[in-house]
Every structure is written in structure tokens, then in C-alpha cells.
Amino acid sequence: MRTLKALAFDAFGTLFDVQSVAEVCEAVFPGYGGELSRRWRQKQLEYTWLRSLMGRYANFEQVTDEALRYAAASLNLTLTPENHARLLQAYRALRPFPEVPDVLRQLAQKYTLVVLSNGTAMQLQALLKQHALDRYLGQVFSADAVRVFKPHPHVYAQVEVALKLSRGDIGFVSANGWDVAGAAAYGYWTFRVDRQGVPEETLGFPEAAAGRTLYDLLAVLQT
Amino acid sequence: MRTLKALAFDAFGTLFDVQSVAEVCEAVFPGYGGELSRRWRQKQLEYTWLRSLMGRYANFEQVTDEALRYAAASLNLTLTPENHARLLQAYRALRPFPEVPDVLRQLAQKYTLVVLSNGTAMQLQALLKQHALDRYLGQVFSADAVRVFKPHPHVYAQVEVALKLSRGDIGFVSANGWDVAGAAAYGYWTFRVDRQGVPEETLGFPEAAAGRTLYDLLAVLQT
Q: Is B54 in contact with A185 (Cβ distance < 8 A)?
């Protein structure tokens, strides 16, 4: 039995399925949904990294908005104010992956569970409440509190500091390989939810374990 | 006539055409050249940003190597040691874009010209020498000297400090929109060589001017 005391979960793509964003993209721009949502997500990540490196932080909602503008422009799609609002709204209506409530319920019996995300605390708390996950995930830690995005160590440090635990007692769970690498470099035990079947990043900070859904995390923690 | 005193040029994609890398990719993995080189380049950039944010600098050659490993794995392509070496070698055999020697020759009559790149000084100087561009580009500034990659302000600051000029006297030229945004945020005048016809980044730090080749930079500077 692994001796972790707390587990921190990334939100987007890890607890919450961003596929519904692609569906709204397709509804707004038929035939372009997949490509628009892929470019939007890629640019959203890039802008979190670029703004952090430039020392020009803006919160995740603003970055998401700016990334959408670029992604649409790169496909020559014209965003009306209505479509723009409808697409951004999709991020406020994400659904958790099917196994999430059950896995969190089981893990909550043994571990302190928290969220650690680039999203703003308000955005994250609204999502958790909407799906009654706030009963399991006691605290929400946001990049917004330290005004720099993952994988900057200040973001990951929040959990260690707030929970008064040592790094080795904390596990971090994310579907984003680069996020797992960032947490591993910081010193947390890591689990990557590899929902899409993509290779591990080759940044030199290996994941401790990986699996296809969060049920595999349960299994790994029990061995 | 614009009153700039110095012009700093990005190297990869700006002075040197990285298309030859795609050609080697295609020769090594027929049918996959375009996709492999696209993924390799994307991952190379991501790793420069991620390592910089994590405070885990490694030089551009190592990052390029790590990015190649990921890109190949993501396409289920197996890299033999020979193919691996051959692909990395492609970065040491880049050709300048056709207009580069002529444009630099003209600009050198009026401005101090330097290189400001993520590449290592050794890598950059070898490329410049190989194509006799070192006669125009007096100094080479590398991210390697400050152990963090663009768009961190420390990288851009090197030119201002070494040339003892004020920021407003320095122009920065790059084919990478995010690099232009980083230099603009730092306070340099900027020109984007938009060789592919992609939109300006929407990071909130607009480019001063843009054009399809470096001849357009000449024209802009003469107006």
C-alpha cells in the first residue's frame, strides 16, 4: 500500500471531459468542430506558458478567450459576439468523466483530495458544485493565486504548503503529460490518466504510473 | 525613416529555412515527413517553454533531441541510432532563405545587425559561417547564455545590455509570432516575417509591422 496522504487532481481533461467543447465548436461551425477545438486547446496551453514566461500573467478565462480568437482566425472562421459567448460558455458546462464520482468517493476515504488547476478558483468551484464533487474535493488550488501557470513550481508548491505535508506524501494526477512532468520535477508522486493513448513526454521527469482511466489509479494505489 | 540603430534577428525559420529538416524526415520515414517535422518542431518549442517554466534548463540541442524522440514515438516510428543522428544532423545543415544575404548586406550599411536565438552560440556561429553570413551579423546572442528560453525577458535583454542602446533603438525580426510578441512585450520595435500567411498572435502585444519576406522589412524601414 502506497503511503501517500493527499492526492491533487488537475481539472480540465482529468476530472472534466473537454469533449463537450468540441461538440459546441461543431454546432457553431459545422465541419470545423474537431480542428477548431484542437487548435483552441493547443493555443490555450501555449498562451499559459508564453504569458508565464513573459511575466505577463492573465487569468485562465482571459487566456481561453484570446486563444479562441486566434484559433478561429487561423481557420478563417468569423466569430460573432453570440458565437464567441456560446463557445466560451462551453467551458462552464463541462461534464466529469463517468468514473470520477465513484473513484473520488472511494479515494476520499483514505486520502485528502484537492484540485490543482490553471483555472480560476471561481470557475473550478462552480464546476465542482454543479456536479456535487465539492463533497470529495475539499480545497481548490489555482494558478491564479500565484499568478503564474503550470508547470511553474510555485503552482505545485501550494498543495505542499497549505496541507503541511512533505512532497513525498503528495500524489498528483493529470491527463496532461507536461503537467505530470512538472509535478514530478517538483517532487510529487505522479499518475498520468492516458485517456487518448499518447506517449509519455520525454522531458526527463518520468511519471510514476499511468493508466487509461481513474480506476487504474485506484488499482495502482492499492498495490 | 525609422530611427532604429540595431536589428536583432531570430535564426530558425527567420534567417534559416527549416524546410530541409522536413525533407530529411521524409527521406528517413517516407510518407511521414510532413507530420513528423511538424510534431518535432511543435514539441521542440513546447519543451523550451516547459523547461524554462520548470526552471530545468537544458540547451537547444538537447531539447531538439528530446522533442524528436517524442515526435517519433507519437507516430509509432522507430528511431534507429543512425536515423536519429541523421535527423539531428539536419539542423546543422540548414540553408538561409534566398533573400537573406542580399537583405542583410543592405541593412548592414545602416544598422548594427545581430542574431538572437534559442540555439547555442556554437550551433549558430557554425551556420552563419557556413553561409558567409557572419560578415553581416556581428554578434550572436543565445538563450544559452542566460539559461532560459524565449520569450523570457532575460533573453531579449541581452541585446540592449551588450549594445548599450535603449530599447526603442532596437528592432527585432522573427518568423515566430510568439517570439515577436515576447520582444514587443519587452519593448523592442518588431517585424514579423509571415512566410506562411498565419494570423498575428492574440497575446495582446501587437507586432509593429509584418511582411512575407525580409524584403518587406527593407521597405518598412525605408518608409
A: yes
